[in-house]
Write a structure and sequence with these properties.
alpha/beta; six-stranded mixed beta sheet; four-stranded antiparallel beta sheet; nucleotide-binding; 2 domains; binds adenosine-5'-triphosphate; BCA_ABC_TP_C; ATP hydrolysis activity
């Protein structure tokens, strides 16, 4: 097991046991003008689980992730995180509380190397100001060394040593997704949100990414919520699945329960309700 185990000072403040509710979504509704992206959606994410959010195109999955990480503010409903009802907050505040995410379309600094992109994920953890960072002297230097060590551990964990000095713009898509996962892990999140982590991947890349997601949970105790269109992957990976359609929750349960749910079958076959 890697030395990179402690999920950070945030986790130290928490006493949640595996299986306790880490994040609760209660009666959340979100509209964009006349478009109702989410209507009265409630579900929870328990500590240590892999939770999938699925549904047909336009069902509201990404909107839900954006509400959870503070990018969108719902007109109704509330989010409770670690037992505290959350006030309106920005993504940076959610990140500081231990919520990290990756994006549907890879969002990396294309001109920077793998190493520097993952290092960028450490920004939140840096305690020395910009002045000291520039001087690279004394305590700032010590801190930078510690951050670099942590980043190297993540690179080892994700098996991307061979591309650590490669500008990410030159990498194939599957590896870019892995670097993006690395950058999110650099934040040592308590809750990791993955928006279509396997999109555009071939079978082998999907198997690799599935293995890394499971290992992140096993080794770091990170709770994971993911959106994924590949239903086979979702059913293999997830402990529980919430299903959205037209912004409403239509099912919630184990992969087995959800697969047998008639509303889910109809939604995926295109039957209108
Ligand atoms: N910023 C926005 N402005 C206006 N409408 C939006 C915005 N974001 C999402 N929507 C609308 O909200 C609804 C839900 O979109 P969302 O992207 O959350 O769905 P999704 O399930 O993630 O879809 P997909 O699987 O295609 O990514 C859609 O009708 C979409 O057009």
């Amino acid at each position: 097991m890697s030395a990179f185990v402690a999920p950070g000072d945030i986790a130290a403040r928490r006493t949640l046991a595996p299986g306790e509710v880490l994040l609760a979504v209660d009666n959340v509704s979100l509209s964009f003008g006349g478009v109702k992206a989410l209507t009265d959606v409630s579900f929870d994410i328990r500590k240590g689980e892999i939770r999938a959010i699925i549904g047909p195109n336009g069902a509201g999955k990404t909107s839900m992730l954006n509400v959870i990480n503070g990018f969108y503010h719902p007109q109704q409903g509330r989010i409770t995180y670690c037992g505290t009802v959350r006030k309106r907050q920005r993504p940076s505040e959610a990140a500081a509380q231990g919520i990290a995410r990756t994006f549907q379309n890879v969002a990396l600094f294309k001109g920077l190397t793998t190493l520097d992109n993952i290092m960028a994920g450490r920004t939140l953890k840096m305690t020395r100001g910009f002045f000291w960072q520039c001087l690279r002297f004394g305590p700032a230097l010590q801190e930078e060394i510690a951050h670099r060590r942590r980043v190297e551990e993540i690179i080892d964990f994700l098996e991307i040593e061979h591309i650590r000095k490669t500008p990410v713009g030159k990498l194939p898509y599957g590896l870019k997704k892995r670097v993006e996962l690395g950058r999110a892990l650099a934040m040592e999140p308590e809750l990791l949100l993955l928006d279509e982590p396997m999109a555009g991947m071939n079978l082998e890349e999907k198997e690799d990414m599935s293995r890394f997601i499971i290992d992140v949970r096993e080794q770091f105790g990170t709770t994971i919520a993911l959106i994924e269109h590949d239903i086979g992957v979702v059913m293999d990976l997830s402990d529980r699945v919430v299903v959205l359609e037209y912004g409403r929750k239509i099912a919630d349960g184990t992969p087995d329960e959800v697969q047998k749910n008639q509303a889910v079958i109809d939604a995926y076959l295109g039957t209108s309700h």
